[in-house]
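so my prof wants the structure for this chain in the tokens format not the other one, which i didnt know existed until like an hour ago. anyway here's the sequence
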Amino acid sequence: MARTYENALNLLETRRRRGRPLTDPPTETGSFPANVTTTVRGIPSLHGMSEWLQTLGHSDADVARLNIVHVTGTKGKGSTCALTRSILLAHGSRTGFPKKIGLYTSPHLQCIRERIQINNEPVTGSLFTKYFFEVWDKLMDPNIQNTDTEQQPPRYLQFLALLAFHTFIRENVDAAIIEVHHGGEFDATNVIQNPIVTGITSLGLDHVAQLGPTIESIAWHKSGIFKSGAPALSVPQGASPTEVLHARAAEKNTSLTIVPLNPNLPPDSRVQEIPVQRLNCSLAVELARAFLNAKAPDHVLEPDDISTAVRNISLIGRFEIIEDPDGQSQWFLDGTHNTLSLKQQRNGFPKLPGGLRCKSQYRILIFSHFSKDRDSLALLECLAVSLAESDALPDHVIFTTYIEREDKSEKIDKDILPNSLPNLSLLSLYAEKWETLDPRSATSILTKETIEEAIDAARIISAQQDTNGTQVLITGSLRLVGGALKMLRP
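here's what i got, hopefully its the right format
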């Protein structure tokens, strides 16, 4: 097989799991409240990671030399990682350290290389291909794999995490910001034994089939990334999860610091306009400060470092606004995909200048969410309640799928399985649900099979309105937002 980028992506797709096993691993022992669930369904993603890294020639010491900032949470962990990276880059530009910073994040919006970045840019296609086949050849060779274990070779997310570690080690980064996939204790990224600092963003109920049905269980799993000797930081949480976090920090022989909202963030930035991003940025500042305290104690994180980072950062697909050239439509895009995040819609776009509370403009909602791990109808209801509380319910609703274009074509690196594309019958359920949530909208609901058709329909509706322009909110999934961005900003 030719060593091409396309073939690398095709091979990577073969590592996707077609279904989650229903058996549980042995229960983890330790100190935890009785209402904490400490098992996960199936074989933990962490299983095998250390051995695979050793097969690649990477020891725990090699991973430790990456100088890792490890971040988990239910909401905002991707933004927090990006902000931490931006702050350290700004400081490094001024002082000379750190010069080279790796970022591993998920999921991606448009291109899988977004998951593995160096210095604010996805790795190139050639670099991705080179390191992909270095990992593939060593871990997937039937002559050498599974020599001392009966486990299967790495699955999709495990392989991507291994590829990220391999890339960052080969590229000699000065720091690596690593985002947990989900959970923490059993996550593939928790192969990290010696992080510089760990961080937890806002917690909520998500991935409950794997992490348990209570906020205490979620907190237990997330705090599994705490390590002895590495400071643990968290944004303010509720009383019960905070108690779990403190207990876990003591169990892991580290200290937990609760990071309050930073009142000194740059006043003229998008971060200040969005409350949840202020919280994420406050945590990112302290993660960067803890990193410098450990790796460059003579360095001081200056306000200018923070200002430069926050003003220059672009969080694509998160509270993003795109204006049509003709000024007719204003598109609000947010890849929010859990209830905790959807509740923040009322604190995001509605507070921006000309936001969703502008009653002189016609409002359209484009929504899509399909997941085995989440209750999609509950997410839709959460969004409706949030918009209603902001007096920003849409005048028209369009439900769609993750299929991008009418010819059903998909980019080769699109993060989606062909056999998991939702059918239109699921969209009908959304429409029926919305009618119960907002009875006045019964005659203004559309279902469209593709994102392209949904956007075209929104434009047609907009052109028919005798109002001061149209606002279109696109939300519910990063896959939806990623596809929409290709149409709105090709």
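also thought this was worth mentioning. Residues 20-32, 350-354, 415-420 have pLDDT under 50 and may be disordered.
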